[in-house]
Amino acid sequence: MPTYDYLCRDCGTSYDVFHKVREVVEDVVCPSCHSPNHQRLLSAPNVSMGSQSEAEIPTCSAGGGCCGGSCDVN
């Protein structure tokens, strides 16, 4: 089942909901204040790196995090 991110328009809480694509969105309520007044957020899909161990995943040669495409990882 896909995960959808929502933002409660009443209390500002953001939360994830696991549901089927054709499930009724009106049934979604905020877990904090129980309000049905929400906005579905655009979110990136969760991508798995397969069965690679952490040691096998390439890292940026510049050190630290990714450097925006200037290394050989991208």
Could you explain the architecture of this structure?
The chain has 74 residues and is mainly β. Helix content is 0%, strand content 20%. The chain has a three-stranded antiparallel beta sheet, with no helix packed on it. β1 (3-8) and β2 form a beta hairpin. The protein is flat.
- What is the oligomeric state here? single chain
The poorly predicted ranges are: none
CATH topology of the domain at 3-43: Rubrerythrin, domain 2
Any idea of the CATH class of the domain at 3-43? Mainly Beta
Radius of gyration: 18 Å
Order of helices and strands: EEE
Q: Determine the mean pLDDT.
A: 73
- Relative strand content: 15-25%
Shape estimate = flat
Major beta-sheet overview: 3 strands, antiparallel
Order of strands in the sheet with the most strands? 2-1-3
Please give the count of helices.
0
Counting DSSP E segments of at least 2 residues, the number of strands comes to 3
CATH architecture of the domain at 3-43: Single Sheet
In whole angstroms, how far apart are the ends? 30 Å
